[in-house]
Design goal:
Homotrimer. GO terms for molecular function: purine-nucleoside phosphorylase activity. The chain is α/β, with parallel strands linked by helices. The chain folds into two domains: 76 residues, no CATH class; 286 residues, Rossmann fold, CATH 3.40.50.1580. 43% of the residues are buried. Bound molecules: 1-O-phosphono-alpha-D-ribofuranose and guanine. The site of guanine has 15 residues, from strand 5, strand 8 and strand 9. The site of guanine (GUN) has 15 residues, from strand 5, strand 8 and strand 9.
């Protein structure tokens, strides 16, 4: 049977790899200072006093915050005033100009002209290793790209061919809980569109809410519940740029019906049907896992699996007219029983990914190979 116990060689989560949301404003502040020429930059827009004496005091305070942030240490000051950042610091990312700049930079650094985009979920980065003649870019080297801060997300963009199909693969994605603005999280989708990508394939690790699901099952996402969206947290909020898509995009066809059928056919041929499911994915903000009451509620609302990603990417990709296909690996069972001793944890999530990786990679790569075959139909 499928076992999810942690292997002895599981690497513990490195605390320094993680950026707490609390630290994000400090990093943004650090970037603001750098982009304005460091200590001599114009700090008036952070709301500090205009008088020279006060300015000096604020500057040195800011510098000390930055120094501490750069060393990944909690700042000694207890609060960072929100008025130290402008609105543009919070909503920046995903503008046409930024995406164009990033796409042009990539196009001038690779010969690959991808038509397929892939996003690897937690612990599922092995998919990128299947890419032939890879050309790899670290996120930190790509203009306007955020950085991966989550263990199990390598933070590399891989160009090459998968089963002869030119593709670009995100080996690591961005999540709301990392502290990035939602437009920044989804910036790669718009960049992919500008690169020429037509089909997006997303994978993720998710908790199984459906009581029939087992750890190790793979769920084709047929629909989603955008829980943050209910509170207005939507990557398309803000001015609409018609160059990407319409103001009110339809989401009832978010997950391409033909690609879902193709995946069922491929899974059947590969003998994977016994662990293939199809269901509804619910996104939450994270990073805390769900309480028992929350899991029960989500299950009653019609969600089969719960996670912290994918939906924002799908919304932006659909807005830009790309077809979407998404898979959830059920990495753990959502706890619904107050007597249960089970506890969701990220190591279990990564371990399940390791155990199902080979089959998931085979499923995705075969679907990609058939895209070519079915190209005329799409
Ligand atoms: O959705 P992906 O990126 O696969 O990651 C999932 O796994 C992490 C929790 O273990 C969360 O980030 C959740 O969203
Ligand atoms: N929110 C959430 N995300 C996950 N990612 C992997 N497992 C889970 C889970 O149980 N809950």
């Amino acid at each position: 049977m499928f076992s999810v116990s942690c292997a002895p060689d599981v690497v513990p989560v490195a605390v320094t790899h993680q950026t707490t949301p609390a630290l994000w404003p400090i990093r943004a502040l650090s970037r603001s200072v750098t982009s304005r020429g460091g200590r001599d930059g114009d700090v008036s827009r952070w709301g500090v006093g205009k008088k020279k004496k006060k300015k000096k005091k604020s500057r040195s305070r800011s510098s000390s915050i930055i120094r501490e942030a750069e060393h990944n240490v909690e700042p000694s000051c207890c609060s960072i005033r929100s008025n130290m950042l402008s609105m543009s610091d919070f909503v920046s990312g995903g503008s046409y100009e930024q995406c164009r700049e990033t796409a042009d930079w990539l196009l001038s650094n690779t010969q690959v002209r991808p038509t397929v985009g892939i996003v690897c979920g937690s612990g599922l980065g092995g998919l990128a290793e299947m890419i032939k003649d890879p050309e790899i870019f670290k996120y930190s080297d790509i203009p306007n790209f955020p950085r991966s801060t989550v263990h199990g997300h390598a933070g590399r963009l891989v160009f090459g061919t998968l089963k002869g199909k030119p593709c670009v693969c995100m080996q690591g994605r961005f999540h709301l809980y990392e502290g990035y603005p939602i437009q920044k999280i989804t910036l790669p989708m718009r960049v992919f569109k500008l690169l020429g990508v037509e089909t997006m394939i997303m994978t993720n690790a998710a908790g199984g809410l459906n009581q029939d699901y087992k750890v190790g099952d793979v769920m084709i996402i047929k629909d989603h519940i955008n829980m943050p969206g209910f509170a207005g947290v939507n990557p398309l909020a803000g001015p609409n740029d018609d160059r990407f898509g319409v103001r009110f995009p339809c989401m009832s066809d978010a997950y391409d019906r033909e690609l879902r059928q193709l995946a069922h056919d491929v899974a059947s041929e590969l003998g994977y049907s016994h662990f293939l499911r199809e269901g509804v994915y619910c996104v939450l903000g994270g990073p805390s896992f769900e309480t028992i009451a929350e899991c029960r509620m989500l299950n009653r609302l019609g969600a089969d699996a719960v996670g912290m990603s994918t939906v924002h990417e799908v919304i932006v990709a659909r807005h830009a007219g790309m077809r979407c296909f998404a898979l959830s690996l059920i990495s753990n069972r959502a706890v619904m029983d107050y007597d249960s001793q089970e506890k969701a944890n990220h190591e279990e999530v990564l371990e399940t990914g390791r155990q199902r990786a080979e089959q998931l990679e085979k499923l995705v790569s075969t679907v990609v190979s058939r895209l070519e075959h079915n190209n005329n139909n799409f």
